[in-house]
Amino acid sequence: MAIVYHPEYATHIQFRHHPESPERLEYIMRKIAGLKLSQEITTPEPATEEDILTVHTEKYLNFIKNFGTGYLDGDTYIREGTYEVALLAVGGAISGVSESFFGNKPVFSIVRPPGHHAGPDHGGGFCYFNNAAIGAKRALKMSERVAILDIDAHHGNGTQEIFYESPEILYISLHEWGIFPGTGFHTEVGAGRGKGYTVNIPLPARSGDSTYEEAFNTIVMPILEQFMPNIVVVSIGVDAHYKDIMTGLDLSSAGYLSIARKLLEFSEEYCNRRLVYVLEGGYNGLALSEVVGGVISMFEGKDIPLQYEDVRDTSIKGKEYIEKSKKILSKYWKL
Ligand SMILES: [Zn+2]
User: Fold this and answer.
1) Which entry of 117, 122, 154, 175 is annotated as an active-site residue?
2) Active site residue 241
3) How many CA atoms lie less than 13 Å away from 158 in the CB half-sphere?
4) How far is the CA of 233 from the centre of ligand 1 (A)?
5) What's the rounded Cα separation, in Å, for the pair 278 and 49?
6) CA-based, 20 to 30 A from 274: which of 1, 98, 103, 322?
7) pLDDT given for residue 71 in this prediction
8) pLDDT of the residue at 1
9) What is the average pLDDT across 195-222?
10) Which residue ranges make up each domain of the chain?
11) CA 37 to each of CA 1, 9, 272, 301, 334: distance values in angstroms, whole numbers, following the listed order
């Protein structure tokens, strides 16, 4: 079993009743234990400052390190130990990338705190350092092209900022339109040499399985096939699930697993099964653990019975939005 996890992730508590809580990973680890998969779990080392500096500024690193106690933004709190556990989350992403890259196998890094809202010189939105971005940078040391696919319900503004001018790292995001952090317009396509290598597919509330299916078939998979990455890093948030009340998206567990199936098959055909999932958001423990457990079972060739598989969007609710993205991206890709 290809899982990266550290028990110390449970020590990260922002404040009481914060949705990004230790219970999230407790749900996942309980689910995995119940699935009776092979039981080997990799425990990561904390990332080094040198790792952090591959995507963040020195000023920002020192700011977080010496922050003390208090609010980084209205939703993100720092206290004693936050810096250390944030380094451990980055370490989890790096460890996942290395294991997948050298082992030619899919890996799931079950980490927290999440990372995709952390940009070069800022954190926020429950994030301190950008785990997936630093993992992708590590992968780029060993390869030429890395794709990051972000299926958290929120736009990964931090990841986008970090790689906005980079043609070596493709960033694709599907997210709900009009919610935090307010970025990820169709027209944000990258800049300079990176033009065309940022792909945004904002979706209206109530978009679910059929909308994601359409977006993957007509935009995401064709672009991945043309980009030909050496490894795919998936920023997975399960907050696009209909059970998750944080956002208005309506993916079912079956919808998530259908995406996971496409990505696994893609990795088999194009990049030696090099595929790393890095956990971002997802605040309903039942949905979160069902999806993460389902994805990891799929790595081992097993199906699990699903509880949350109502398909609530059968009529491609986000069709117009997808067409808009497609039109803009057709300048850069054959779609
Ligand atoms: Zn999110």
Assistant:
1) 117
2) no
3) 28
4) 16
5) 20
6) 322
7) 95
8) 60
9) 98
10) 3-329
11) 7, 22, 22, 11, 40
